[in-house]
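Sequence and structure are kept together here, with a separate record for every protein. An example record follows, reproduced without changes.
>
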Amino acid sequence: MERSFIMVFTLNFDDPDEAWTMTKYTIPADGEIAEGFNPEHIDAKELGVDRSPSQLNVTMVCLFQILDIMNAKYNNKKNSLLLTAIMLLCHCAYSQTMPSMWDSRSNGKEHPNLKWFKDAKFGIFIHWGLYSKLAGEWQSKRYYGSGEWLMYQAKISAKDYGLVAGEFNPLKFNATEWVDLIKSSGARYMVVTAKHHEGFAMFDSKVSDFSITKASPYGKDVMKELSGAAANAKLPFGFYYSQFLDWHEPNGGGNDWDFKQSKDYHKYYEEKSIPQLKELLTNYGKLGMVWFDMPGGLNKQETQFLVDDLHKLQPQTLFSSRVGQGLGDYMDFGDSEMPAEPIAKPWEAIYTFNDSWGYIAHDQNFKTSSDIIRLIATASSKGGNLMLNIGPDGDGSIPQANIDCLKSVGRWLKVNGESIYASIAGFIPAQPWGVTTSKPGKLYLHIFQRPNNGKLLVPGFSPKAISVSTLAGSVALKWRQTGEDLEVTLPNVPVTGLADEVLTVSYAGKTPDYQNSMPITVSAAYESNELPVISAQHKGATRIETLTYNHYFGDWKHVTVLGAMKSPADSTIFTIRALEPGYYKIYLDYVCPSASAGQEGKVTMNGREFNFKTLSTCNEINSDKPVSFIKHAVGVINLPQKAIYKLAVTPLTDGKELFKIKNVLLEADKP
């Protein structure tokens, strides 16, 4: 008799097609593993496993079960050492895959109830639970980053964490005030955490006693109050639900500091997760969406059954992509991630007010109203939504700074909402001055940075312009169209402030397609001209990547970069259009680990060559650690006339990856 088990042999998060290599080891009946045995490679498809980073967590948790069984059945010293080493390897890999557990794939089908979501453009997310009571502190130690992950960070036992429920008494909570604030912010939908990874139900669940109605002195169903207030305000309402991670339950995903035995994830789904989801879809009125998170423990067939079973209760309810296995109705990107270019499918970017999703008393790093207005405009310019998170405290109060900011955003949207709600992506790529959104016959110019000469150029404008005016007040502006160049003379004073000044361009004719290939505009009228890598051509092995890292725990950052430049055959080429002659200083904005530092590269432009040596910005690039970008000055170039130029970045010799470059900056000399 022989037994086999599966282990992860290699990991590659950069390439989803090679996220892992599956290897089978055959164990003889006596349990002895012979030295020098040969593993047999297995294609993941044979196991019905989707070879993608988002599926890695499912395989990892299965490994824990398999290895536990192996240790029990073949408990000799030699194999115990081997299995322990394998478990450590698996644990290290598993602990670093939070971003890979976010599934941004949607099913590609047009859900009949998607229109309201696509038109909404701006929603509010609320993270509220027992972690809000703890406020980022445990046993006199402050934690930073994602406050809702405090139980995980501090490795608090389920027993000790459960005692927090006895102190959770949010007497200042007022559902109507929350909904009124959300309405005043201009948001068109809201989502609130019904159960986060801590396992605590913020609703009256008959499935578990670990709930606000049974375990807390408050004793009321806050989700019932919120869903009712939202319905009265005609505000689409949805629940967040963590379907796999549950640190309170022995069979729930994630808690390996309390529950070290093998876990039965199907039992957890059957006894808690699915019944609670059905409670939410049955007892709280019409739901706009269910926002799932951190999928795991189910294969694609099982996930499809879950989706179909839940949709029977409310067919109109949208399911987020984090339901897993590419079966969501719309795409959700990673935490605090914005796509680099417009996307045709319905999608949503999620950002939080500060560095945490759950309330942390010592985290005051709040976004300003200007930050949020520009995030809304940027998401809309790429065809998607922004859902902004707020974290109420344990008393049920929303931080005053958030209240004031949301009201300011609401005032801006009241005046400029025409350019946001029900808009589609603009057909002009991002410019030095800002971004664009559009509707039939109208292009909206969102100006983040005014040109200092008062002349705003819209390149690539092929339809026939009819008029240009401010959106606020409809003040007519002077303009002229020459070929595909539209030049607008701006008013001396912005009508709606500097956060985002919106102009409306009315035009006749067919709406053009998005033009990413047009030259990047460069002008001395701007403090800095950014050449984003998404607009560059790349040759050889050079490729576009998303660089993910964090500052505090769970405070994720995502940057589009170009990488894999290792030889002179690999290059990045920017096509730029200089609007006036002049001198410009060239900066390379990149991250470079110490192992790649000291290599030579060159920038070529207008017949000149600028050599440079890469500088170390970090010891290594690790998604769990901060990385620093450097703005590396490499030379000054004279652009003698208004013209089209090419700027190329290339390694001088064969070697390691030169760096990961975010953009090139050209700053005009202004004597």
